[in-house]
Amino acid sequence: MMKSLLPQSQLRRAAAAGRSSGGGAASGGADGAGSDGGAGGRAPAASTFWFLLHALCCLVSLFLGFRFSRLLFFLLFSTSELYSTSSSSSAVLRATTTTTTTTTTTTTTTNTFTLSFAATSNPPPSTLANHTALDSAAAGTSGHTQSHVVVGRHGIRIRPWPHPDPVEVMRAHRIMERVQEEQRRWYGVKEPRQVLVVTPTYSRAFQALHLTGLLHSLRNVPYPLTWIVVEAGGTTNATASLLARSGLTIVHIPFPDRMPHDWADRHATENRMRLHSLRVIRERKMDGVIVFADDSNVHSMELFDEVQKVQWMGAVSVGILAHTGAADQPRLSEEDKQNMPLPVQGPACNSSGQLAGWHTFNSLPFTGKTATVVGEAAPVLPRGLEWAGFVLNSRMLWKEAEGKPDWVKDLDAVGENGEEVENPLILLNDPSSVEPLGNCGKKVLLWWLRVEARADSKFPQGWVIEPPLEVVVPAKRTPWPETTAEHSSELLNTKQDQEDRRLSRTNRSSRSRSTTKRKGGVQGQEN
Amino acid sequence: MVSMMGSRAGWRRRAVVLLLVAVSLSAMPATLAAAAAADSVEAGREAEQHTERISGSAGDVLEDNPVGRLKVFIYDLPRKYNKKMVTKDSRCLNHMFAAEIFMHRFLLSSAVRTLNPKEADWFYAPVYTTCDLTPAGLPLPFKSPRVMRSAIQYISNKWPYWNRTDGADHFFVAPHDFGACFHYQEEKAIERGILPLLQRATLVQTFGQENHVCLKEGSIIIPPYAPPQKMQAHLIPPDTPRSIFVYFRGLFYDTGNDPEGGYYARGARASLWENFKNNPLFDISTDHPPTYYEDMQRAVFCLCPLGWAPWSPRLVEAVVFGCIPVIIADDIVLPFADAIPWEEIGVFVEEKDVPKLDTILTSMPIDDILRKQRLLANPSMKQAMLFPQPAQPRDAFHQILNGLARKLPHPEGVYLQPGEKRLNWTAGPVGDLKAW
């Protein structure tokens, strides 16, 4: 590419200088210059020769680039000593591979070409054992084998298809899986304990929504799990069928009282239900970590990893989501907004990482505007400390357990006299021995939310539509694309009428009007 | 006494005594075997744990304690050679060449130091040759040969120990790009060669490449300085899963100094970029993310390609963060190569094989990868790469001393005959001979 420019420059030069020159290569031009210089022996001719040679060299380097022209002239004017001690060019003297890369989205092509030096025999690039720039500076360190690593310009090797190979990508993913498995084995939980999830529930419109969400979260827990579902008002088939579809180990416990319609009462009932399930756990001597998962709460997977670390009783940070999204939000003053603390309930630690107190949800901004009845469009607030933020070691409940600390009350002594069981701290004599989990409560591992419909809202039993519903709006459109809007709607209307007439003729008898209409609707769709 | 009892009874008693002795003797190997069994159980347990012992070509020497094995005498050079340079520019304490300063400080208060030069095995002259910084913070090596020469002249005039051996039992720390060649450009460094006055001394340097002019035989290669506190501050829990396959942050093209490409890193970094910029397994870019250390802890492989010089602090960072270093630098000599079997710990890829890097890494047997991770998890390995202040056992300072101790006793040719001279004090470029 570069060489093609040379003939023109040489010819121009030669023509200007009035000299005979060969076409083609720069060597021809240079030789011509040299020979001419040699021919004329007069002094002024000699000085002009050197001047012109200098100009020629400048021009050549202008076109070829400094390094290449330097190289070329070195080649031409040196004899058999290719590897002399001129430090400037020795470094460049090796076969180089270059690549041409197009910087656009087109593919990059690799052209490897080797410059061969005519002077001595051409060693192939791979066996460059003797050609090294080190020769030039081998002052005191001689005698050792030469390195094949050479200073200087190297080619940028690009393979013809620089894109990932899917087989290799799969292998890499398998490697990473295996590495992560090892990591879990070294640094993760040594002996995973069973997780006992306690959920109070009752049959209502939002039950399927909440339980499905919780179900999916629990299915993803990588530890052995038992789901203890306490249902208010006795066990129902709807709940049972939902739980049966989960594929988890279920303990479905009936609770005799029905769930009240009042939030305050509902909280109290839920607390009693949880206590009941704790008694069941104690009876059956179930072993594991007890997590209180309310059906409307959302849990992160890290929660279940974190609770494996609990010794006897632990506390995690719970995010409290109190807004119901109603149109009129509680109007907060500027001051309120500023003082609004984080909506988190959890343990508070001092600087040495020990439990120093509790963060609770500040319900002051909401006074007077909270929901009292389930399903009311107002914020639902937690009371004090929610059970969801605590985890227990089930052995704490057993009558006799190895190493059971003495600051744990016996379960029978709790809630006997119908007293309010507000939060699990009531199980302890000494609430300061609760362990803060989740990086000392810094990490919020689950979210508390109460979203419910009105107690009397209807919903299909088991969410199966049976008997079929009345048609509210008959279908006017077919699923197929229409040719023209008017024409097809005309067609449709005529078709509808025909169908209706036909149907009314044939189905005169016992079918009710609604059924016919529905059939008509359906058939209209099918047409 | 037994014999006096009468022949028959005495014989019986002797037999009883012999029996007792025999029983006790047999019990001993049983206890020894039990001890051995306990040892093997111990070793088995350790193998089940997540680290593995490291032993290099010189044996299991990573955990040696050099105290008592050598004595070092520190020359008291005038402030202009060391302290004044640091006072002038305190950035010297933070850059990757800071090992020379911290080595000096460590030796001053170390147990191997002796104030009596007559009993010293090694002599140390604390000259800070990489503390002359540009405004940007890069060290200028142009005066370093003169500084070194001036220091050597000082110590040879003031103490007789240099001339006794012509420096063969002295060591110097030269953490610059190409060690004691004192230039940042490889061609120029090769041209200069190692300072002639240091011909017989032992060099402690970061640069190491086989059969290179700037690597003298018998040099001790050390890791570059990486700030230990900064790295400790960015540790994340070890159970964070490693989800990045290959990680690298740095330049691929040095457009400032090598606009045409192909010179910087011998084209290896450019080749990396061109081949793997579209590969989702390779998280490589020129970013400077604030989560650089955290990301390394989430990666399985960390690339350590050469730059203008083959060494870089990336190796130290990869080892500390448990990421398997993929070393792309032909013929490189890694730190403490006789104590640490780098072949078993890192992956070595030749520069010509860079386009096949993904194939190489994905076809590594998983057991190899897990073994490398176990070796990297060994705390001695991580300690050996660091220069903590104050010094801790088994850290890089101690490894340097171990290396020096392994070179003892000095061989025969060290001590010169009186009047014999080996060094040529006028060798080297003329500019070096100017006084400093």
Written account of the structure:
The complex is a heterodimer of chains A (527) and B (436). Chain A is α/β, with parallel strands linked by helices. Chain A has helices spanning 5-17, 26-39, 43-64, 66-77, 87-90, 166-187, 207-219, 237-244, 263-283, 301-307, 334-339, 438-441, 485-506, 513-526, and strands at residues 195-201, 225-232, 249-255, 289-292, 298-299, 313-315, 317-321, 344-349, 355-359, 390-393, 435-436, 444-449. Chain A is built from 14 helices and 12 strands. Chain A is elongated. By secondary structure, chain B is an alpha/beta fold. Chain B has 15 helices and 10 strands.
Compact overview of the structure:
The complex is a heterodimer of chains A (527) and B (436). Chain A has 527 residues and is of the alpha/beta class.
Distance between the termini of chain A: 72 Å
Overall pLDDT score of chain B: 88
**H/I helix tally of chain B:** 15
Calculate Rg of chain A over CA atoms.
44 Å
| Inertia-based shape of chain A | elongated
**Order of strands in the sheet with most strands of chain B:** 1-2-3-4-5
Assembly type of the chains comes to heterodimer
List the helices and strands and how they pair.
The complex is a heterodimer of chains A (527) and B (436).
Chain A: H1 5-17, H2 26-39, H3 43-64, H4 66-77, H5 87-90, H6 166-187, E1 195-201, H7 207-219, E2 225-232, H8 237-244, E3 249-255, H9 263-283, E4 289-292, E5 298-299, H10 301-307, E6 313-315, E7 317-321, H11 334-339, E8 344-349, E9 355-359, E10 390-393, E11 435-436, H12 438-441, E12 444-449, H13 485-506, H14 513-526
Parallel strand pairs in A: 1-2, 1-4, 2-3, 6-11, 7-12
Antiparallel strand pairs in A: 4-10, 5-12, 6-10, 7-8, 8-9
Chain B: H1 7-48, E1 72-74, H2 83-88, H3 99-108, E2 122-124, H4 144-158, H5 161-165, E3 170-174, H6 186-192, E4 202-205, E5 220-221, H7 228-233, E6 244-249, H8 268-276, E7 282-285, H9 292-296, E8 299-305, H10 314-320, E9 324-328, H11 342-345, E10 347-348, H12 357-362, H13 366-377, H14 379-384, H15 396-406
Parallel strand pairs in B: 1-2, 2-3, 3-4, 4-5, 6-7, 6-8, 8-9, 9-10
